[in-house]
User: Which sequence fits this backbone?
């Protein structure tokens, strides 16, 4: 199944993003077979990130929640809110990116 995960960051905790970025990227690389797409969300390209979006392929929502819990950003309190939704691609034959 495919899931879209929308993260909203705590704006007071940008220092966590900066301090844990290398470990967060290593985490994403380790789970790249499941976390198909990942990236920060901003109002404008030059702004600080406001959150992030993942597209995850997993057996169930519990696995998605497990991945979220393992992410260094989540473990260290960057995430203010997390929303997980089932995602159905409109164009099934196209790649996620």
Assistant:
């Amino acid at each position: 199944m495919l899931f879209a995960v929308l993260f909203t960051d705590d704006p007071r905790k940008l220092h966590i993003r900066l301090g844990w970025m290398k470990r967060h990227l290593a985490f994403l690389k380790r789970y790249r077979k499941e976390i198909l797409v990942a990236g920060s969300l901003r109002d404008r390209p030059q702004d600080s990130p406001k959150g992030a979006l993942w597209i995850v392929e997993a057996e169930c929502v519990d696995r998605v929640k497990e991945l979220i819990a393992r992410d260094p950003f989540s473990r260290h309190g960057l995430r203010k809110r997390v929303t997980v939704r089932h995602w159905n691609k409109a164009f099934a034959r196209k790649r996620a990116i």
About this structure: The chain has three helices and four strands. Strands lie at 2-9, 35-41, 51-57, 79-86. The two ends are 17 Å apart (CA to CA). Residues 27 and 71 are 7 Å apart (CA to CA).
